[in-house]
Amino acid sequence: MTLPTYVRLIEVGPRDGLQNEAQPISVADKVQLVDALTDAGLGYIEVGSFVSPKWVPQMAGSAEVFAQIQRKPGVVYGALAPNMRGFEDAVAAGVKEVAVFAAASEAFSQRNINCSISESLARFVPIIEAAQQHGISVRGYVSCVLGCPYEGQVSAQQVAQVAKELYAMGCYEVSLGDTIGTGTPTATRAMFEAVTAYVPREKLAGHFHDTYGQALVNIYASLQEGIAVFDSSIAGLGGCPYAKGASGNVATEDVLYMLNGMGIETGIDMDKLLLAGEHICNVLGRVTGSRVAKARQG
Ligand code: HMG
Ligand code: MG
């Protein structure tokens, strides 16, 4: 298959990245990060989550962050909403696009959102109906598509069934998450082949955590399957609070470097992106997870 000529990068650092930071991060610092990412040319930024603050304390200020960011026309500022309560809070905060999140593994579903896979899917139906009435688009996530921290192996057919349901109920795009980063290219391609039997490839995205250093090769394998949307996180921030040992998403800087080298367009400015990454790492007092940023720092 010919490789895509344009890739859409979904910046999940402010949500998937920061949700896992133990130290408090001020609303002002989160706003500064989102604004810097907007300035770098990202077309989609996942700003926060409307989840229980008891479950994920770091996302508690998401409504304030939404109130203070500078929204650039044409850029999508999304948020996670696990249930109707979260959806209503998101709408009240002026969110125009939400994401619902399911898992391909029962154990992970229970640990992450305290219900079974089928209960979670049933919960999403009224959210998507209400979203349609408000003119809000809904993205869907499937976690643990290449392995589960509790169950180990996850079958590609199970991933395909959950993705199929999310797509059928109205998610305009389904992001397939290697939550614990254990996948390798062969498994990645097999997983996409199973899912594309039910969901068109142009409606799918890849979401790779880099825990085992496999994220970029898995993105390359996905490109070979015709996938042209990838989630990534500035400076490789993050992990998942309900997936022990999960490290950050693949760093946006590193994905951009690879795509630039391959002549694949994204509309993102590398220098501005590096500045955004450097700034948030200074705020957090942590070393960047981006290899490109490290190389540029010398
Ligand atoms: P629950 O305890 O079953 O919910 O949690 P409940 O309905 O029984 O409510 C319990 C309490 O939570 C009540 O408060 C509710 O009001 C409150 P109390 O009466 O005890 O004071 N509550 C809420 N508060 C704020 N916002 C809400 C909300 N809903 C209920 N929306 C629930 C169920 C889904 C709420 C909980 O499990 C939860 O919030 N989970 C979120 C987990 C999460 O955010 N995980 C990280 C994101 S997923 C991820 O990172 C994977 C991804 O990146 C892809 C990949 O890498 O694979 C997307
Ligand atoms: Mg994730």
CATH C-level class is: Alpha Beta
Mind telling me the CATH superfamily name?
Aldolase class I
Number of domains: 1
C-alpha geometry: globular
What does the main sheet amount to? 8 strands, parallel, barrel
How much strand content do the residues show? 5-15%
Low-confidence stretches: none
Average pLDDT works out at 96
Number of helices: 12
Named once each, the bound ligands are:
3-hydroxy-3-methylglutaryl-coenzyme A, magnesium ion
Count the beta strands: 8
- Supply the CATH architecture: Alpha-Beta Barrel
What Rg is obtained from the alpha carbons, in whole angstroms? 17 Å
Helices and strands, in order, run as: EHHEHEHEHHEHEHEHEHHH
- Strands ordered across the widest β-sheet: 1-2-3-4-5-6-7-8
- The helicity comes to 40-55%
- Examine the coordinates and then state which fold CATH places here, giving the name of the CATH topology: TIM Barrel
What is the CA-CA span between the terminal residues?
Answer: 37 Å
Structural class: alpha/beta
InterPro entries: Aldolase_TIM (IPR013785), HMGL (IPR043594), PYR_CT (IPR000891)
Organism: Pseudomonas kulmbachensis
Protein name: Hydroxymethylglutaryl-CoA lyase
Family: Belongs to the HMG-CoA lyase family.
